[in-house]
Each structure stands twice: as C-alpha cells, then as structure tokens.
Amino acid sequence: MNTYILKTHFFLTALVVVIGGCQEDPHYDPNRPSTPTGLEVTKGDTSVFLSWTAVGDASSYVVVRGLQLIADSLTSPSFVDDFAPDTLTEYRVYAVSRDGWRSYRYASDSGYSAVPSGILPRPPVISASDGSNYKNCTITWSGGRFATSFNIYRDGSLIAEKFVGTSYTDNQAPVTPVEYRVYAVNDNGASTTFASDMGNKGYFFIDTFENDVDGYVINPWTFRVDPAAGYGVAYYTEGSPVVVSGEGYEGSSKALKIVNGKAQLLCDWGGAPVAGKYKITLKVKKANGGFWMVPNFSGAERVNATSDWTSFEIETALITAGSTFNIKVEPDQDGDPAFFDDWAIEYIAP
C-alpha cells in the first residue's frame, strides 16, 4: 500500500513537471497560434493602414502601437489606425487562438500618418556646438511637429536640403562663430519660422600668449602641446623672444617680441593626428622692414610689415595622418623689434 502511494505521488509529480515544461516552451505548446507575417504599414492623409498575412490557426488578432494596445479581437488581417502619430512608430501584430492564447512572437513594421494637405511643419529647437571640437561643428535639434525633413543654413547659405535626422555635422564650419538656422520641411513646404543658434569649430592649435607672464622667454624647444596628447606642437627659437604686455592684437594684452631673432612653430612628435589640410595663421607687425615666412611644405614668402598688425596665412596640401609640418618666421635682422600674436593652426576636413 505504501509502495503504491509513493509510486502514485512520483507519477503525479513527474506529470506536473512535464506538463509545466511543455507550457513554457513554445515548441511544445499546441495552444499557441502561429506568428503573423508580412505586416505592411502604409500612411494615408490622416491615418495609417496595416495589413498582414492571415494565420490559419488564429481566430483573431491584436495590434500594438509603441507600447499601447490599440485593437484586439480583429477577425480580418487588416486595421486602420485613425489616431496614428505623425512621427515614426513601431506597430506589432499578434495572432490569438480560439482559446485566447496569443502567439509568442509578432509581426513588426513602422509607420506614421501623412501630414494633412496645407499644413506646414513647426520649427524645431536647435543647439550648435561651441568650438570644443577642432574637426567640425555639430548641430542638433528636437521638435518640428509635422516635419519629414529639415533644411540647414550656415550664415544664410543652404548647406543641407531635406536632411532626415536630428543631428548634422558641418565639416566645413569656420573657427569664428556663425549663425546656423534649421527649417522644418514637409510636402507642403518649409516652416515659416526657423530655429537658430551660433556655432563654430575650434582651432587645432592657437597661442595668444595670454597665459604667459610678462617677461616670459620662449626658449628653444618650448612645447605648447605635450606629445603625450598623441602629437606635439613646439617652438624652436633664436634670439630669446619674450612675451610683453601692451602690444597684443585687437584688444589682447600680450604679444611675442623678437629682436634680431626668429621663431619656428613645429607640428611634430607624432605629426598630424588626422588626414586633411592644416591652415597656419599669424598676426605680425614691425615698424620697418618685414618678415620671411618659410614653411617646410612650400616656398618662402615675403611679408612687408608696418607698425599696424598684418595677417598672414598659408595652407598645407592634403596630408595624411602622421605627416609633420612647420613654419619658420624670420623678421629682418635690423635691430627693430618685431611682434607676433594669435599664432594658430586650423584643421580643414578633406
């Protein structure tokens, strides 16, 4: 008798385990219907139309938009969403068996309603980068209800038309701040107003001498960018050029003064970190005579100077990552002081 009871208990326990395991495994559950397939979401003027391939062992269907149940007990493989959003949203369709069991998996597609005729989109909200990246300026935005794309302007010039997305990278951005405008666009036209923000890329390198104390001497091999950064920028000098106050360019307080000497700016010790062009700019002044600008990537150029600041710039050819470049500046050796300021390198994307 005891043996019989133990065997019965064992049999019932094993049966429960087997049945429970079958119900948890979709491959062994005869109650679950097959997964719907072929879901297509088509936009209309104010609605979204869904259609899918009928499931033979399903008695009805369930439709989910995003995370919201919007229809159940559908008996035909189609549905019209009259309250569809105007932004791209995922739709899911589940099959339901006669006993109320839902399919383990679902058919999926995304869609949105078309914008009603004559309705222009709303302008977005924009933010542009502030010069922290020397490679480019990134513009991001949000909003723009009823928009299907965006037009982007830099300082009044169209730089991207019918752009799809909410972030744009301007590889041709200048180093000085400019206005970026973003208009929202749909089939009815562009928004009547725009979102705007000021933005720019940063310099690859710039030295204004403002962080140096008055009287600081720029000795040979003075590093301005530590090679630990992956590349090095340094000065080689002759004649002990010194930082002085009261001579800065356009309101800055300091400049570099050289008498019967020279200065060379080198991008070396790793070279250029990325491929592209590099533009070197420099402000110089000297009451008499002038300067020789001697880059290692092109011929020497003569700059005639005056007691007013003169701008000089020169651009490398397209160079590969790791390439080195430098420029030597030699004022006339006549005993008159020469002044340098805002020695900068700008990266230009290929």
UniProtKB/TrEMBL annotation:
SMART domains: FN3
CDD domains linked: FN3
All residue ranges annotated as the Fibronectin type-III domain in the record: 33-102, 120-191
Transmembrane residue ranges: none
InterPro entries: FN3_dom, FN3_sf, Ig-like_fold
Protein name: Fibronectin type III domain-containing protein
